[in-house]
Amino acid sequence: MATPQPIPASFAPQNILLIKLRHHGDMLLTTPVIHALRHRYPQANIDVLLYQETRPMLQAHPAIRHLHCIDRNWKKEGRVKRLNYELALINTLRQGRYDLVINLADQWRSAILTALTGAQVRIGFGFHKRRGAIWRLAHTHLVSTEKHSQLHTAEQNLVALTPLGIPLTGWSAAMHYDQEDWLNTQAALAKHQTEPGPYIVIQPTSRWVFKCWEDSKMAGLIDALADAGTHIVLTAAPDKKEQAMIDHILSLCHSQQVISLAGQLTLPQLAALIDHARLFIGVDSAPMHMAAALDTPCIALFGPTKLTQWRPWGEKNQVIWAGDYAPLPAPDSIDTKTQTRYLSAIPLEEVVNAARKFLDE
Predict the structure, then answer these.
(1) In the chain, how many H helices and how many E strands?
(2) Rg (CA), the chain
(3) Which residues contact 272 (CB under 8 A, 6 or more apart)?
(4) Which residues contact residue 165 at a Cβ distance below 8 angstroms, ignoring those fewer than 6 apart?
(5) Which pLDDT belongs to residue 3?
(6) pLDDT in tens, 287-336
(7) Which of 54, 61, 205, 316 could disulfide-link to 242, CB 3.0 to 4.6 Å?
(8) With helix as H, strand as E and coil as C, how does 311-340 read?
């Protein structure tokens, strides 16, 4: 493929489509790109194509005009229905008359959809695993991923803006919610608190057990931080395994100042809860990224995850890494179904001391 023509500084798209087909945390880390695009092209409409289940991460963002959603349950509907869904999506995207498409995804589906928009400028990444002609033809500009291993995921996303001449630094992440979300969250808290008061949010769970700390240490943390003036609020997904973990932690706690809202909040309501907290403590998960994006003081417990790419993106954060206390396996070697809790090497007192330091500030 020939070297693409530079995008002139006079390029002023009216309709922009951003594509990212990944998990909840990934979607939150696209918001720096959205902020950079809004600043560079204040007149443009910005739409996003994402998976349906991740919609809550961006649905209240004021810079986004529309969210196009792909429902991964389409594949259960049979070939004819799935084809109809896909054709309807293609038709909708073409009707968007996009001048600029930025494809942050690595799936073939994202490349084909990028090409079918007919946009004048179509930017994607030159992933090593995507060297075929179709990938090249789907994009007018491919950006190198050579330095991705040295960059945070938010920074990787921002690199896609290079052909547009947009500065790649100075853009923060953001999580938005509506006032109704906070009112509903306050109502949920009121069921457990006799009167409103300060609280700390702790998210002990992850969809992957290998990212979790020991239940006994989490209970010890709760007991160490809870006092008469500050409640501890536990959160988790509605998943049965995560609920069971919360129940076990609660059974080990001695403090009466602990509240469980595990599985009871939508993601925007969880954002409202975290936004009003004195401190967030959690494992490597979407709520951790939410806390960082909301600028809530955050302590993130990490194990054998790619720390450079997935640490909390913000200023008021502290990472406590199990690798500082014991050897860890390489992240790419992990069996995600393992029940091994690699975070167990993290001492309880380290987390307690870090939390008290934040609370004393």
Answers:
(1) 13, 12
(2) 22
(3) 177, 181, 182, 184, 185
(4) 7, 9
(5) 54
(6) 999 999 999 999 999 999 999 999 999 889 999 999 999 999 999 999 99
(7) 205
(8) CCCCCCEEEEEHHHCCCCCCHHHCCCCCCC
146: Cβ–Cβ under 8 A, 6 or more apart, which residues?
none
Cα–Cα–Cα angle for 203, 205, 207, nearest 5°? 135
Q: Which residues contact 38 (CB under 8 A, 6 or more apart)?
A: 44, 46, 63
Closest CA to 201 of 221, 187, 173: 221
pTM score: 0.94
Q: Distance between CA atoms of 65 and 342, rounded to whole angstroms?
A: 42
Collapsed DSSP state (helix, strand, coil) of residue 192: coil
267-286 per-position pLDDT tens digit: 999 999 999 999 999 999 99
Given a contact cutoff of 8 angstroms between Cβ atoms, the answer to whether 191 and 279 are in contact is: no
Cα 14 to chain centroid, rounded: 27
Distance CA 296, CA 214 (A): 24
Residue with tokens 């006994």: 216
User: Strand 279-283 and strand 45-51: pairing?
Assistant: unpaired
Q: Give the distance, in angstroms, between the CA of residue 66 and the centroid of all CA atoms in the same chain.
A: 19
Residue 323 CB partners (closer than 8 Å, separation 6+) = 302, 303, 304
User: 24: Cβ–Cβ under 8 A, 6 or more apart, which residues?
Assistant: 53, 54, 56, 57, 267, 286, 289
DSSP 263: T
- CA dist., res. 52 & res. 63, Å (int): 19
The whole-angstrom distance between residue 145's C-alpha and the CA centroid of its chain comes to 20
> pLDDT by residue (tens digit) across 196-214?
789 999 999 999 999 999 9
Identity of the residue numbered 214 = E
Q: Which two tokens stand for residue 100?
A: 């600029």
* Cα-based distances in Å from 297 to 204, 270, 275, 281, 358: 16, 15, 10, 9, 7
The pLDDT value recorded for residue 228 is 66
CA angle (93, 95, 101) in 5-degree steps: 45
